[in-house]
Amino acid sequence: MSDYRIRAATPGDLDGARAVMLDTVYRDFGTGYVPHWHGDVIDPASAYLAPARHTLLVAVDERDASVVATGALDSRGPLHPPNPRQVAERYPSGATAQLRRVYVRPEHRRRGLARRLVAELLAFAASDGGYRAVYLHTDPAVVGAEGFWRSLGKVVHDEREDEGGGQSVMHFEVPLGR
User: Fold this and answer.
1) How many CB atoms lie under 10 A from the CB of residue 47?
2) d(CA 178, CA 169)
3) Residue 104: which of 95, 113, 96 has the closest Cα?
4) Is residue 153 within 8 Å of 109, Cβ to Cβ?
5) Cross-sheet strand order for the sheet of 170-174
6) Per-residue pLDDT of the chain (178 residues; tens, 9 = 90+)
7) H-only helix segments in 2-110
8) To the nearest 5 percent, what fractions of the chain are helix, strand and coil?
9) Cα–Cα nearest to 58, from 11, 13, 3, 108
10) 77 phi and psi angles, rounded to 5 deg
11) What pTM does this model have?
12) Rounded to 10 degrees, what is the CA torsion of 100, 27, 83, 37?
């Protein structure tokens, strides 16, 4: 089993982090790069390194120093649209820490990396002192995503239950003090 180090991303990690994120949106989500949804993937420095209340973490395989997983947090709540109005109102920007881009390369999965990344992101959010909630949304069609997030938080809205099916997205809250 490899040894991994979880740490805040540096400018030198951005190409590796971007590659993990892009590979995930193409392979796991099947959407590919969509500028409206993935602008932070193309410019993670502006999205996560520059703002004080945001962070991008990486898991680095210490054998070859490659970035094998990512996890990010920002202070932007979900917007309506495309998210349901009640979700956007419950998680306003500024008071909400939104978990984003918790992605692990397939060959490094099932080793606790996503769980470790989330624990570090929650510690970052708690240390900020200004967040009152931690929110995320996920696509339950991605293998393992729904079960993983259910193990860490609670479902606050499942769009599959909406009339017309919504976006087939699940919205979660993860306890801040976890």
Assistant:
1) 19
2) 23
3) 113
4) no
5) 4-8, 55-61, 66-74, 96-104, 133-138, 170-174, 154-158
6) 469 999 999 999 999 999 999 999 999 988 889 988 899 999 999 999 999 999 999 999 999 999 999 999 999 999 999 999 999 999 999 999 999 999 999 999 999 999 999 999 999 999 999 999 999 999 999 989 999 999 999 999 999 999 876 788 999 999 997 5
7) 14-27, 35-42, 44, 85-90
8) 40, 25, 35
9) 13
10) -75, 170
11) 0.95
12) 70
Q: Which two three-digit tokens encode residue 132?
A: 């009152």
Look up residue 46 and give its two tokens: 């502006």
CA 178 to CA 174: how far, in whole Å?
8
For 57, the token pair is 């973490």
d(CA 149, CA 147): 6
